[in-house]
Write a structure and sequence with these properties.
By secondary structure, the protein is α+β, with helices and mostly antiparallel strands. It contains ten helices and four strands; from the N terminus they run ααααααααβαββαβ. Helix 2 packs across helix 3 and helix 5 (118-138) runs parallel beside helix 8.
Length: 293
């Protein structure tokens, strides 16, 4: 009974963590769009990019209103087409971003950019939404927008969604050249390229762990430290040196970045003759890492 209760408590903690990450990620996206994309007319793809370009040709609706209308419309379409498989996190993130954008427009109207340095503004226009999106993607969610279109196409067609979205984002960024001039259009295209690399980089950085291959003669002390102090397990394999012919042991273990520093120092204390190779890895699924619910 106690094991079941602990299991449920652990799931609850994970859900709470994901919910907090979802909120923080959505806030970062909203700040990047409202304070840096909108005032500079950076059309870096997506719903906000469409809203910026369309808003240039109409004085009736602001980019904020257009973004909210498009986002909510796509959200409704997603529910109608995808049903329950649509996902709570996508719906919640879309609604939260729409509310935050509307509140910011009322509380802090942006009539011009913060600075006269467009490249500096572009950095924040790309960095904040990319980090926010990566955080949400990493917990299996989405911030809606054109991602909803991708989900629908994925369900009913065999179209390469990644290429289709990249092409549509490119067209949106290119439209900024026509609407706002070559300089803004080039900044938008540059931002689109930076965004595509940054999201993947952030996701890998969030999940980055260290994979140790330790060659030693006595693995007991090292494994005890890994088990008791770091809370991880390890795999021990008997081996034999090709040159020396001596019996050795391979200790294989994956730890988080901060733990890697501690483990490396401890190995040197326990066995100064131990040989180590340490590599980066970002896709760890199992007990103690991602997927351990």
């Amino acid at each position: 009974m106690e094991a079941g209760e602990n299991r449920n408590m652990k799931i609850t903690k994970q859900q709470l963590s994901d919910f907090l990450i979802l909120n923080l990620g959505t806030i970062l996206i909203t700040i990047g769009i409202y304070f840096f994309k909108f005032p500079n007319n950076f059309s870096i793809g997506g719903v906000s990019g469409i809203a910026i370009v369309v808003g240039h040709y109409t004085s009736v609706l602001s980019p904020t209103m257009l973004t909210n209308i498009l986002s909510i419309s796509l959200l409704i379409v997603g529910f109608l087409v995808l049903g329950k498989g649509f996902g709570f996190m996508t719906a919640y993130s879309t609604i939260l971003m729409s509310v935050l954008l509307q509140v910011l427009e009322i509380v802090y109207p942006m009539t011009e950019p913060f600075t006269n340095q467009p490249f500096l503004e572009l950095v924040f226009a790309v960095l904040l939404p990319s980090v926010g999106s990566a955080m949400i993607f990493n917990i299996g969610g989405s911030n809606g927008g054109t991602e909803i279109i991708a989900m629908i196409f994925k369900k009913y067609t065999s179209v390469n969604i990644g290429k289709a979205l990249a092409f549509s984002d490119f067209i949106i960024a290119l439209a900024a050249c026509v609407a706002f001039g070559v300089e803004t259009g080039l900044y938008s295209l540059l931002g689109l390229v930076l965004k595509s690399f940054l999201i993947d980089y952030v996701i890998e950085s969030i999940n980055l762990c260290k994979y140790f291959t330790i060659i030693c003669e006595n693995p007991q002390g090292i494994c005890q430290y890994i088990n008791r102090e770091l809370g991880h397990s390890a795999t021990i394999i008997r081996a034999k040196g090709a040159y020396s012919g001596q019996e050795k042991y391979l200790v294989l273990v994956i730890v988080r970045r901060m733990e890697a520093v501690q483990l490396r120092r401890k190995i040197r204390e326990l066995d100064s003759s131990a040989f180590m190779t340490i590599t980066n890895t970002s896709e760890i699924i199992g007990k103690g890492f991602r997927g351990d619910l």
